[in-house]
Design a protein that fits this description.
single chain, 207 residues, mainly alpha, 10 helices
């Protein structure tokens, strides 16, 4: 593992634990037992380091997503598992990180999705197409528009005008929000599967 990878992984851990603004380059260097100069030889500044951390988080999410897709019987099951993973991930983040990421998320996440080679946006297109092929999503939905909507929906937990920090610790709030969107693009077959999996999970959904 090279220095860039080591620094990025340690920074990701510290950001999630203490928050982005609370972590300084000096703290990171001391934690790793290296000089601050070494960090600046790899990353121009903290903003570039944050971009690297977000890129790493997206790639890790992609790895988890692909594993879930491979192990699930259908797209609905896969999406519900991904949803639970995302909620658990949010709940284990420190409140400071959640507040800071609201400030930075849109600017950097948009940059990552649009221009830095992360195939996350395209991955959601493939999931939608797979759902249509399985007869679980409606054929009449516009795939590109649906993908854009899902992308925006994924940003909403970071919008302080929609969710408070307390809401992020309420699993039912987030599940209801995402599941109701999923219902809107599903066929009767897809809705039956949602009801089946949610009933077994013991969840109460808004209709």
């Amino acid at each position: 593992m090279d220095y860039r990878q080591k620094i990025t992984e340690e920074a990701a851990l510290m950001f999630r634990t203490y928050g982005i603004r609370a972590v300084t380059m000096d703290m990171l260097a001391n934690r790793m037992g290296i000089s601050k100069k070494t960090i600046y030889e790899v990353f121009r500044d903290k903003d570039e380091l944050l971009q690297g951390v977000l890129r790493l988080m997206i790639l890790r999410q992609k790895e988890v997503m692909n594993k879930i897709l491979d192990e699930s019987e259908n797209v609905i099951e896969a999406i519900l598992k991904m949803l639970d993973k995302m909620i658990d991930h949010l709940q284990f983040m420190s409140p400071a990180f959640q507040l800071d990421i609201r400030r930075y998320h849109n600017e950097f996440a948009d940059r990552l999705n649009s221009g830095e080679g992360i195939p996350f946006y395209q991955d959601k297109v493939e999931i939608i197409k797979k759902g249509i092929k399985e007869g679980l999503f409606r054929k009449d939905i516009d795939i590109d528009i649906t993908n854009k909507c899902i992308t925006e929906v994924l940003k909403i937990p970071y919008d302080k005008n929609v969710f408070s920090t307390d809401d992020l610790h309420d699993k039912d709030v987030l599940r209801n929000f995402y599941i109701n969107y999923l219902r809107g693009i599903s066929t009767p077959k897809g809705l039956d599967l949602i009801n089946h999996y949610e009933k077994n999970a013991g969840q109460t959904l808004n209709r």
